C-alpha cells in the first residue's frame, strides 16, 4: 500500500453501515445522484470522498430509510466503465407511501408503474431516477 493510500484510509471516518445488504451503485454523476437522492428519498450523506477535477468521486455513503446506499462514479480508465442499470430494483418499504411517492415524483423521478393495490395486498409502484435506476415503493394498505 502506498503512503498516500494509507494516509487517506487513516483519515476516513468510521461511518456505520446500516442494513445487512448494501447496494453499491456506479452511476454517471455520483455527486448529482446523491443530491437527487436527498431531494427524492430524504437521503442523508454519511460520507463522501471529495470529487476529482472531472467532478467524479470514488465513494459516497448515504442513509435512506434506515439503510445504507453507496455510490460512485465510473472510472473507465481504470477498468470500471459505466453500464446501464438493468435487472435489479431498489425497493423502499415505507409507511406513508403517498408522501414518499410525491416527494420522489416532485424531485423528478419518472413514474414507471403507478401506485396501486397489488395481488399480495400492499400498495406498490415503480419510479426511475434520472440515472436510470428503478426504485419500487411498497406499503401495507391502510384500513
UniProtKB/TrEMBL annotation:
Pfam families: Glyoxalase (PF00903). PROSITE patterns: VOC. InterPro entries: Glyas_Bleomycin-R_OHBP_Dase, Glyas_Fos-R_dOase_dom, VOC_core. Residues 17-140 form the VOC domain. This is Putative glyoxalase superfamily protein PhnB. It comes from Rhizobium paranaense.
